[in-house]
Design the sequence.
């Protein structure tokens, strides 16, 4: 079983819909990252969370440390949001390593 | 700032050849990482460095070597390339652990070994 699981694997939405992508993890963490990978391959870090909630524009990320779960929400989705969204956790301990989920491929149709 | 730069963008190698993937960052970050991304799989950590002169293995280090002689540069060396090393390679950097800053990724190097 992977230490970081994302759902769904693929998601297709219509423009304007509210999107939720989920991430569950099975290890102790000190932080969780949400990343966006565009079709061209470039990776951009969206959020780093250690508790609570963060908001940036139409993107909202939440984390529940007790339940080992995080969600990424996109409000009023747009075709330019089409990308792969990746959850990654920074494991506790002395090593500085991120463990990545396999990603959720989001397609937003006009 | 150029951020994290990687060269080359694409490369095709024959089995048994060697090459070095270059990575540089101009943000004075201590932490640097090399990842590989295989189709349908999550990124896997190959090697990382917490500062000049200090490197450590990640999850999938076999077949690779790294060095960190300066804060800016973190090259990844492939010795005796194998088809299993066909992948997209990403270099990343970050400031101190636990910093609210995010990880910065390079644009990637697409490597094919035939």
Sequence:
């Amino acid at each position: 079983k992977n230490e970081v699981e994302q759902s769904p694997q693929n998601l297709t939405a219509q423009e304007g819909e509210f999107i939720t992508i989920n991430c569950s993890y099975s290890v102790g963490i000190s932080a969780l990252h949400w990343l966006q990978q565009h079709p061209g391959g470039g990776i951009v870090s969206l959020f780093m969370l250690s508790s609570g909630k963060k908001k940036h524009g139409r993107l909202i990320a939440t984390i529940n440390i007790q339940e080992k779960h995080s969600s990424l929400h996109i409000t009023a989705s747009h075709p330019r949001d089409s990308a792969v969204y990746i959850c990654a956790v920074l494991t506790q301990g002395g090593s500085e390593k991120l463990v990545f989920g396999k990603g959720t491929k989001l397609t937003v149709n006009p | 700032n150029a951020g994290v730069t990687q060269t080359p963008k694409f490369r095709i190698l024959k089995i048994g050849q060697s090459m070095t993937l270059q990575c540089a960052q101009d943000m004075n970050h201590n932490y640097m990482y090399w990842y590989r991304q295989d189709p349908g799989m999550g990124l896997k950590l190959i090697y990382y460095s917490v500062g000049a002169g200090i490197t450590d293995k990640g999850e999938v280090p076999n077949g690779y070597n790294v060095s960190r002689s300066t804060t800016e540069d973190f090259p990844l060396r492939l010795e005796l390339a194998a088809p299993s090393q066909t992948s997209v390679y990403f270099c990343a950097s970050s400031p101190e652990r636990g910093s609210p800053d995010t990880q910065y990724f390079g644009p990637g190097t697409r490597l094919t070994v035939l």
The CA atoms of residues 90 and 96 of chain A lie 7 Å apart.
